[in-house]
C-alpha cells in the first residue's frame, strides 16, 4: 500500500501525519505560539564563558540563554565534519553530539575562541526542552530537497540510506564538479537517489543564495535576534517525506494547499499533481483515526494484539520501556511465549518511539529469555525495525538481565512534552501521599506543636475534607489517645481550597 501525507490546518496549529501501509508512521505538530526553532539562524551575543564546562551561554533573544559547546564553535579555518557519510534525521543534518561536545586534548579552549560580549552567528540545533535552553551551533547547515549545505565545513558525504554503491559514486562525482565554485561542504540526502545533475545544481544554487542572504542580514543587523527561520511544518514535511512512494498529499486548507503546490512545483514538479485539497465537514484526522492513535500514544500502557503490553515511562533525559506478557499465556512452553511477546513488542516499541518522538537514552526491559538464540532474534528484529526510523538510533546490545540500552537522537520535545504539562495537583510526580501517611504526619506535627505550647487548651486543624473524614471514620481511637496524651482537644475545620496533602495547625 502506498504512503500518504495528511496536512490538517487549524487557526492555532498545523498537524502533519505520515501514513505508511495504512499505519501512522510519523506525526508533526506545530502550534502558532510554540513554533519549533530547530534550523533557525540567529545573531547571538555571548553573555558568559564557562571554562570549567568548556561551553558558553549565548543570548539569542529567547526566554532562556542558549547553550554552546566548544566542539560546536567554528574556528577560522574550515573544519572537517567529525563523522563520515551520516544517516539523516529528517530535515536536520547535525553533528554527532557526543563527538562535537567533547573537547579534544589538543583542541582549542572555549575561552580562546569566545569572549563575553562577542557577537556570533548561530543556529538552533535543539529546541529548549524542560528547564534547558536551546542547544546551538556555529556550524550552519541549510537543508534542501536533495542536499544539505554546510558553509563552515569542507566535507562531502552521502547519506548511508543510499545503499547502492554505483549510485553513491555517481552522486559523489556530480557533487565534486558542482561544489567547485561554492565554498563549504555538502551532505547528499536520501531523496537525491536518482536525481539528475540539474536537480542537484538547482538545489545547491538555492541553498547558497539563502546563505548569502543570511550573511548580508547578519552584517547589517546590529541587535541580536532571529535572522532566518526554517520552513513551516507543512513545507518541511513535504520536503523531507515526499517521494515516488507517496501516492498523495491531502490538505484540508485551500491556502496551504496552494503553498504546497507552489513549493513542489519548484523542487519536485513531477509530483505536484499528487497534492489534493479535501474540504470536508469531518476533520481530516478523524477520517483516518489519527487522533485515536495519538491518544493511545499518550498513555503509559500500550496493549499488544496478543494480550501482552508495554509500559513506557518518560523522564527528562531517560525513557524506560517494560515488556510484560499480560493476558497472553501462549500455547507451547514458557520460553516460546516469552519470545513471541518480545518479538511482538519490538514492532510496537519502534512504532511508539517514532510517534512519541522519544529521545535521549532509552532502556528496554524485555522479558528474560533463557536461550541465547532467542535473545539474538529479538535484537535482530529491533535493529531491523529501527531502520525505518528517520531519527538516528544506536543500539548497544542486550545484557544478561534482558535490558537493552539504546539512544535516539532528540532534537524537538517529545509528543508528551508537546501536548501535556505536569499535573498541577501532584506536581508531576504521578502520586500523592495516602491518607494513612498524612494522618501519621499530622499526628506527629500535633505532638510537636503541643509540646511547644504547654499552656494551651486546644489544637485546631485546618485541612481538606478528605483527610478529616478519614481521621473521623478510620482513626477515631488513635485520635482519642492523642488527645489524652497531649491533654488538649483536637478539632478540625474544613478548607475546600486546600490540597489533599496540605494542613495548618492553630494552637489556642
**Rounded radius of gyration (Å):** 29 Å
On the 0 to 100 scale, the average pLDDT is 87
Task: Let me know the number of strands.
Answer: 24
Q: Could you say what the CATH architecture of the largest domain is? A: Beta Barrel
The named CATH superfamily of the largest domain: Nucleic acid-binding proteins
Distance between the termini: 77 Å
Number of helices: 14
Shape: globular
Supply the number of structural domains: 4
CATH structural fold name of the largest domain: OB fold (Dihydrolipoamide Acetyltransferase, E2P)
> What's the helical proportion of residues?
25-40%
What's the topology here?
Layout: E1 3-9, E2 13-20, E3 23-31, E4 41-50, E5 55-59, E6 66-69, H1 97-101, H2 110-113, E7 119-126, E8 135-137, E9 142-143, E10 147-150, E11 156-158, H3 165-178, E12 185-188, H4 197-220, E13 225-228, H5 233-241, E14 246-251, H6 254-267, E15 275-277, H7 284-287, H8 290-298, E16 301-303, E17 309-314, E18 318-324, H9 334-356, E19 360-365, H10 372-386, E20 393-398, E21 403-408, H11 415-419, H12 435-452, E22 458-463, H13 465-474, H14 476-486, E23 489-494, E24 503-507
Parallel strand pairs: 1-14, 6-8, 11-12, 14-15, 18-19, 22-23
Antiparallel strand pairs: 1-2, 2-3, 4-5, 4-7, 4-13, 5-6, 7-8, 9-10, 10-12, 16-17, 17-18, 19-21, 20-21, 22-24
Helix pairs in contact: 5-6, 9-10, 12-13
